[in-house]
Amino acid sequence: MLSVTLLEHTPEPERVVAMAARLCYASVGAKELSERLSDEKVKEMVRKMVAIGHGSTLEHASFTFGVEGVSRVLTHQLVRHRIASYDQQSQRYVASHGFQYITPPKIAGNPAAKARFDALMEEIRSAYDELVELGVPKEDARYVLANAAETKILITMNARSLLHFFNLRCCLRAQWEIRQMANRMLAEVKKVAPTLFHNAGASCVNTGLCPEGDMTCGHLEDMLKLREP
Amino acid sequence: MLSVTLLEHTPEPERVVAMAARLCYASVGAKELSERLSDEKVKEMVRKMVAIGHGSTLEHASFTFGVEGVSRVLTHQLVRHRIASYDQQSQRYVASHGFQYITPPKIAGNPAAKARFDALMEEIRSAYDELVELGVPKEDARYVLANAAETKILITMNARSLLHFFNLRCCLRAQWEIRQMANRMLAEVKKVAPTLFHNAGASCVNTGLCPEGDMTCGHLEDMLKLREP
Amino acid sequence: MLSVTLLEHTPEPERVVAMAARLCYASVGAKELSERLSDEKVKEMVRKMVAIGHGSTLEHASFTFGVEGVSRVLTHQLVRHRIASYDQQSQRYVASHGFQYITPPKIAGNPAAKARFDALMEEIRSAYDELVELGVPKEDARYVLANAAETKILITMNARSLLHFFNLRCCLRAQWEIRQMANRMLAEVKKVAPTLFHNAGASCVNTGLCPEGDMTCGHLEDMLKLREP
Amino acid sequence: MLSVTLLEHTPEPERVVAMAARLCYASVGAKELSERLSDEKVKEMVRKMVAIGHGSTLEHASFTFGVEGVSRVLTHQLVRHRIASYDQQSQRYVASHGFQYITPPKIAGNPAAKARFDALMEEIRSAYDELVELGVPKEDARYVLANAAETKILITMNARSLLHFFNLRCCLRAQWEIRQMANRMLAEVKKVAPTLFHNAGASCVNTGLCPEGDMTCGHLEDMLKLREP
User: Fold this and answer.
1) Number of C-alpha atoms within 13 angstroms, CB side, residue A25?
2) Rounded CA gap, D226 and D206, in Å?
3) What is the pTM of this model?
4) What structural domains and CATH numbers belong to chain C?
5) Cβ neighbours of D62 in C, within 8 Å
6) S-S: C60 plus which of B18, B23, C164, D156, CB 3.0-4.6 Å?
7) How far is A207 from chain D (nearest CA, A)?
8) Tens digit of pLDDT for each residue in A65-115?
């Protein structure tokens, strides 16, 4: 079961963004700025920073997620996002006897496929156990583990990096599992920084551009049609 | 006057590092881990992560500083540290009439030099004002401003990046102004994460290595002599 | 005098991008891919990678520039681009007696302003020399140097980072000096990677979006008007 | 079969490092510097930059490798190195019928384990094919693929990042497969930049420090003993 928890974050993420913004343009000091900013002013400045893409101000707000119930298909994609910090459960040090696994919905919804899939996972579990019994170290036995094997990961990203991550991974063209996780992360950060992430999501929603070319899902075109008179 | 304020930080910086560490090596989930970690266990794990240089776990703890009373000599060096986020007061948008400036101690302590220095700063202030009056935009008038001109900057770094920053900038061979700021930053983070930054500082103190070669200050050698029987 | 030289670059920048692209989508190996790609196919694939924003493929092509005749106003902005490598002439180690300087066009074209500016630079040169004579170390005497002081810098960026740099810095809203340098860098890379940088430039030109909001120069609007029937 | 090819690199990697170094400390321009540097001088400066850890100068030299015959165990670790660029063969777009796989030596050398391992891989191949026949998309069928499945990847790293990579991954404590690849990469770059990578390798060899604590392999201790009288 996918579980996404916002474990830690910069205590007042929107206030720190607003302070950064004002520091750039005003002649007062950092401490003073903080004292003088009302909640309404903070919101206004955050909206402006997001709108004009003044990305550096968004980097001072940082978010740490604990994620469980995801496959290594997902994490191998995830860790390609380099402006982020990760720590992941090790298959080298943690034994994988009776490992859990993620079943893709298109397999779960296809009884013949599901039966084959489950049987294979059972087979892989047995093979892993047998190899370990035969004296193969865990770090080598793991070569048999499936991409589907469940893993856990800690993710820290700043708001700028998150907005970019959502652009790519909330997109309907993104792989289903990472999209599901990205949407859950977005829901979490919206609770603590609603203005900062107000308009966050796939590129089409967030920037009005679809970078997918011929492979577009058509969502942007649909949105634009709705706006026509 | 140099002012270094720790404006924001990950609420429990050492706990998040310990959680990251345990996630890698244990088979329980992130939430569970947090509940079960005593303060003593947190400290023990943080010590271990720092000792073995498991840097990724240290990245989840993030610190935001407001810094004032520094020169652009300092900030031009500072922003070369790329694993960090900055927002700096703009000389393009903020007028610099009567700008403040930083006087190096070796000038402050040399009356003839100080007189020359102060007179020149006064001269630059006048020139800036005159240029603006002659219709030169602020963004061009600033070409006359001295390196000494005071600036303000917001800095966010994670603990791993900070440890590296302290290695280089708390060193006696570092430029005096950035060293002064680095030492103040170190004092601030020690208050909220004493175990994480227990042994932080210049390379010689932190790693037992001096990378300065022939240009060493000799501090490491002195420390090693003290340890001899 | 601004001087921008492309000192080194990945020997066949477009071929390496095309190879990266094919590796992702084809079942043949890296060496094979290279042998089979015609020049025409390379161009086609590069065009596609740029169009769909498959940025990772563009990172394998890297460019090193030697830049001289720029001010520290420029370099302080430049080094804020963190996905890049820099080495800059040190004012700490290299003496600045009789330093050269950059005169902004709006000062150069205003005789009264120019006279004031030149006189001040002369004054700063004298002050620098006097301070050094009074025993102030170079690294402290430099506090008097103007933002206008000439510096030299070596820059390495990959194609993805360059495209982003051009988005921001070829923009008419960018500061004039860094825009001038960015345009020169763009001209240089177009000579060796014309397809890769075909459409490069300010955001409006490159992406069809203007992130400047109310502060837009109007160029995008003008371009869109031209396209109307 | 592991295959590591150095596909592209900065044409004169050591010369560009030397130029960067001289630019920092000398008062002549970049072009001039290049002309005046003899091969012997280049080597001398590179040696110095490596010795004092002036890392920024090493970043201007960049290396692109094509790697084949590696498992996803390896690539999932590899892509955690963030100061690098990657493009990897996609299991989403490229079909994996009859996929190749990597057999760990400790399995290859244990006949019972090898038989079990090979049979399981055959079983996974069949399951993959059946799922695709049952209408499961490639991107979901891949959830059954083993960690052992062969993949191909393009890697670009600069010399500074490579030196760090070798510190960690040439270490005897590193996982055997990535260590094998790291050693091959090191052999390749030594051919084109022998001075730059002269002393490269595991931390103990390169820096004289072992960060592994209690888990040290003892190699450093052995080396130190050899140096005793």
Assistant:
1) 9
2) 17
3) 0.95
4) 3-86+153-227 (3.30.1360.170), 93-144 (no CATH)
5) 10, 62, 156, 158
6) D156
7) 26
8) 999 999 999 999 999 999 999 999 999 888 999 999 999 999 999 999 999
